[in-house]
Amino acid sequence: MNYRDYFEKMPKVELHLHLDGAFTLDFLFDLVRKYGGDPEIKSISDLKQRFIFRDFPHFIDTWFWKNRFFREPVDFEESTYQTLLALSRQNIIYLEAFFSPWDYQESGVSPTDIVRANRNAVRRAEADFGIKCRLIPDITRDHGHEHALDRLNLITPFLSEEIIGIGLGGSEQQFPANLFKEVFVEAKNRGFHCVAHAGEAAGPESVWSAIKDLDVERIGHGVRAIEDRELIEYLQIEQIPLEVCIVSNIKTGVFSDFSEHPFAKLLHKGLLVTVNSDDPTMFGSTLADEYSVLYRELKLTLPEIRHVQLNAVHSSFAPPDEKQAMRDLINRFWIDNGMAVTDN
C-alpha cells in the first residue's frame, strides 16, 4: 500500500471544517443554475477558478459571493447531506463542523431555519452512512459584537447532541477576540463548548486574547503562535489543542509555501496539534490531502501521523466511550497494515 492509499483508507477525525465551505461543486453549480446563474460561471471548471484566492480578504469576499446562491432551507439541508456523504466516502468517521447561520440574511433565510436544516441533515447522514457529525455555530466576528448575545440566544434552544458549541471566525484583524468576551462567558455558563479562530490572519497576540479573554477550549488555526516563544511554552504546558489547516494557510497566504509552515515544529515541540481541511471545496483539498502534505512535504513519519490522528480524537468533544471506539478503530487500521502500536 502506498502512502496515498494509507491516507485515503485510514479512519479520520476532522475538527475544523466549515460546512459553508465544504459543499460539493456539483451541488453549488446546481444552485447557481437554479437561481438564474452568474454570467462568469458556465461550467464546473469556471466554478473551480472562482475559488482561487489572492489573499485572505479576497477569500472572505468569495465566501459571501457563493452564499447568495443559498436561498431556501432545503438548499442548506441538501448541501450538508451531500457534503457528509462525500466525507463518509473519504473515511471520515467523526466530524465537528462549523456553520454560520447569520451569513445569509440577504437571501431571506432565517438563521433558525438554517440551524434546523443542518441539524436535520446531520441526523439523516448518520442514519444513512454512519458518519457522526456535531455542529458548532460560528457567531462570526464580521457581524459585530454588539448583537453577539442575540445570536447566542437564538441557538441556545438547540443546544443538544448535535449542536454542541460556539465558534468565532471571520475577520480576525478587524474584530479582536476581546470584543466577544461577554458572549463567551455566557455561552460557557449555558453549557456550550467554546472555540475561536486565532493566530491565522493576526499574530500571537490574537491567540493570547482567545485564551485569556474567551477561555477557549481549542484554537482554530493558531499557527502564528510560532512567533512567540512564551506562547509556545504555554500551549505546550496547557495542551490547548490547535486545529491546524495547512493547505488553507497556503491558499490564503498565511505562509507562502509548505517549507515555511510550522506544523512539524509545533508537533515536535510537544504541542497538541491536529490537521484539518477548513473549507475543503473552496481550497480544492481533502483531509487525506492534508495528511499527504504532512508525509510528503513536512516529512512526518507514519508513527507521527498516527499520533496526529489520535490528537484529533483526544481533542474532540466526543464523550469518552466514543473516543475509545475511535482510538480502537484507528489502532486496528495500523495493526492491520503492519504497524506496531502503543498507547497514545
Give the gist of this structure.
The protein has helices at residues 3-9, 25-34, 44-50, 56-67, 73-89, 111-129, 148-155, 181-190, 204-212, 229-238, 246-251, 263-268, 280-283, 287-296, 302-315, 320-336, and strands spanning 12-18, 92-99, 132-137, 165-166, 193-198, 218-221, 242-244, 273-275.
Please give the alpha-carbon distance between the first and last residues.
24 Å
Q: In total, how many domains does the architecture comprise?
A: 1
Helix coverage percent of residues?
40-55%
The fraction of residues in strands falls at: 5-15%
Total number of strands:
8
Structural class: alpha/beta
**Parts with pLDDT < 50 across at least 5 consecutive residues:** none
Subunit arrangement of the protein: single chain
Largest sheet: 5 strands, parallel
CATH H-tier superfamily: Metal-dependent hydrolases
In the CATH hierarchy, what is the class? Answer: Alpha Beta
CATH architecture title: Alpha-Beta Barrel
Please count the helical segments. 16
**What series of H and E elements makes up the topology?**
HEHHHHEHEHEHEHEHEHHEHHHH
- The chain-level mean pLDDT equals 94
